[in-house]
């Protein structure tokens, strides 16, 4: 008998699950509200990284004088006098790319035989989904239900977005002109990425951080590199202070801090976290447990507390990354439809912060390595010694590799560099496949290449008898 699968939410967790379920012979219906791809494609990952791609070009232009490039004549040195960003054109491209990506996903699902309903889904017990569509409610009986409804930006009680001057990260793509002075509230990944991008695009940027440093959840050495870069480029970071309110005064915004200071700018971007889209869905009535933040409680094979109901993506609060959401969705369907499945292993997940430079991590963190017993061996190499980095004029960055004593198995790493999101892949393979530093060191790298520093770090962690002795 064909298994009826109903998926609520068309983001990475939902559409990847739909593809797997269809391939495994399920009768799949996907109920989606905002457009296939979800926030990852329409308002988050794809748009922000497209914007950041333009910022990367501007960063390269601004720092190209070291490479001998001159602008506006042989005596001119300032790239900013001859190069500027047309933000309206940038954002038009951002939205067009997001729309095309969403359409591609739609075609792929349709080709796989997935039925797509435009509407809002809610549970009616454990075996039925009600899709609230423009033509009325549609009842969908299900053997398996997956909830992949994502999350939306959190806002402050006294900082209500207006979509013009006070913005969430989903609203910035409506801007036609570059902000004269952008105040970014929140120094986590989203806040740091937008602060870095708009600084590169030419805006004056102030970053308000409630913690003692930016990116408090990332590697401390990496965060320090980014703070040093921000300082060098003239970006202002206000640490250990919170925004109590954001108000609009004509063409200005006023951000009042908890220490009494007021910061005046042209625009304010709120990047203070996310709230799961789980309200008024009939979840608790169906026996689906939520935590205190409203996130769905799911195990390592994406099961909820309700039999036959699974959950994936940001609505679970488990490492809010598109790659993790997609894997949770796939795992859910593999498990539900009887295919071979391995539980979600967060220890092998690689992630990236798309600032300039980028910060990529995988596996064990420095904080975990510092308290590990037995002690984890660590090597950190600055990119200043890498020949390719010198050729490219790279000033900041490093690679860091962690491995276990005695065995030399690679358990984690950090890369801080342009395109760190690409450079982390060899370490991700090493961590997931439990390769040793000797195996990594024995692989050829191109000379010259930034990835050569990864092999050099592995060589410095070479296994000698029963002890790993990092060489200075």
How many structurally independent domains? Answer: 3
Strand content: 15-25%
- List how many beta strands DSSP finds: 25
Radius of gyration: 24 Å
* Shape type: globular
Report what the structure shows.
The radius of gyration is 24 Å and the shape is globular. It has helices at 12-23, 38-42, 45-62, 87-111, 189-201, 220-233, 322-336, 366-371, 387-392, 420-423, 425-432, 437-441, 452-460; strands at residues 4-8, 27-32, 115-118, 120-123, 128-133, 136-141, 144-147, 151-153, 166-168, 181-185, 204-208, 236-238, 243-249, 252-257, 262-265, 267-270, 274-276, 309-311, 350-353, 358-363, 377-382, 398-403, 410-417, 463-464, 467-468. The protein folds into three domains: 4-44 and 92-152 and 275-345, FAD/NAD(P)-binding domain (3-Layer(bba) Sandwich); 166-272, FAD/NAD(P)-binding domain; 357-468, Enolase-like, domain 1. The protein is built from 13 helices and 25 strands. It is of the alpha/beta class.
Task: Give descriptors for this structure.
single chain; 472 residues; FAD/NAD(P)-binding domain; Enolase-like, domain 1; five-stranded parallel sheet; 25 strands; disordered C terminus
What is the topology?
Elements: E1 4-8, H1 12-23, E2 27-32, H2 38-42, H3 45-62, H4 87-111, E3 115-118, E4 120-123, E5 128-133, E6 136-141, E7 144-147, E8 151-153, E9 166-168, E10 181-185, H5 189-201, E11 204-208, H6 220-233, E12 236-238, E13 243-249, E14 252-257, E15 262-265, E16 267-270, E17 274-276, E18 309-311, H7 322-336, E19 350-353, E20 358-363, H8 366-371, E21 377-382, H9 387-392, E22 398-403, E23 410-417, H10 420-423, H11 425-432, H12 437-441, H13 452-460, E24 463-464, E25 467-468
Parallel strand pairs: 1-2, 1-7, 2-3, 7-18, 9-16, 10-11, 10-16, 11-12
Antiparallel strand pairs: 4-5, 5-6, 8-17, 13-14, 14-15, 19-20, 20-23, 21-22, 22-23, 24-25
Helix pairs in contact: 1-7, 3-4, 3-5
